[in-house]
Description:
This protein is mainly β. The protein has one helix at 40-46; strands spanning 2-5, 8-11, 14-15, 23-24, 28-29, 50-56, 59-64, 70-73.
Amino acid sequence: MAVRLDCNRGFASWKSSGPNQLQFGPLALTRALCPQPAMGDRVAGDWLSIRSYVLQDGHLFVSLMADGGIYEFEPFSAAGPSDPPS
Length: 86
């Protein structure tokens, strides 16, 4: 899978052993210094602890093992700003 955490981009493997179960492999991530506030370092540190997910209203919610917390992700849009009308 491809991921963007703050200004960094990366890749990881994933697997699902059952409904709503999710486990990621090691994260290969660029190490750019992102402007603050940045959550990428925290998410990257918790990456291997993610164990389950729920999709709701187009957002991905991932849960950490042992009730360690939940992260919410929204779809990334590569679309740029629209041109102003002429």
